[in-house]
Here is the input.
Amino acid sequence: MRCSPKPGENLKKAVSRIGEAARRGAGLVCLPELFRTRYFCQAEDPAAFDLAETVPGPTTDALAHAAKRHRVAVIGSVFERRAAGIHHNTAVAIDATGRIASVYRKMHIPDDPRFYEKYYFVPGDLGVPVAALGGASVSVLVCWDQWFPEAARLAALAGAQVLLYPTAIGWHREDPAALRAAQADAWRTIQRAHAIANGVFVASVNRVGVEGDLEFWGGSFVSDPFGRVLAESGASGEALLLARLDLAEIDRTRRLWPFLRDRRIDAYGGLLRRHGSP
Here is the structure.
């Protein structure tokens, strides 16, 4: 999805695309990260907090109405105002009846040039919920979370069959071509690795277009538990990407690669340390 400077216009487009996806057979629809606005985290601007809203609120109400109307589950990403001075980057899962099935607050918050999210968002405190959506057990994680194997593993251990990553990731406009290719390949590889290591489906949903100093690279894709890419979009244009998931593939893959069975949970205490050095 390409996002305009007008939040109402972006929300209207998203609702329209939900209807289109449902007409084409989708049972579960995921929108990109913070789709209602342009990516405001490129600068630390106190005025940007005016973009935040409550959950439930106007955006979730509109998505719930679309979900109920089209009988399709929807994942929407919201700049959540939890309280005065407390905000989250939040993904809301809405079932096909229009009910909020789960709320996830982004746990891993980046602070990089043009991705100044720590200024805006408090790390999530709701864990990694699993919800029944579109005939599958689904967990939603958000963008920077997609680089952390721990988050994907928590979702799989909680019973998730599908991991969804609403995303807003792009290049700095001055990045050379070789670096761009390496970054996009690493992004795709790490998420395919989550699918393989956990025996789950993974879907990553990015935005496209140029906003300020960032060029969002699109490339949304769906991977099966074997790491095979089932569907993938291009790098520049908007796209409605559809994939049919055979959930029986999870059992077939885990019989061949029983990684969850062979985990040495007695030996993993060191994971609770920030680093191995004193």
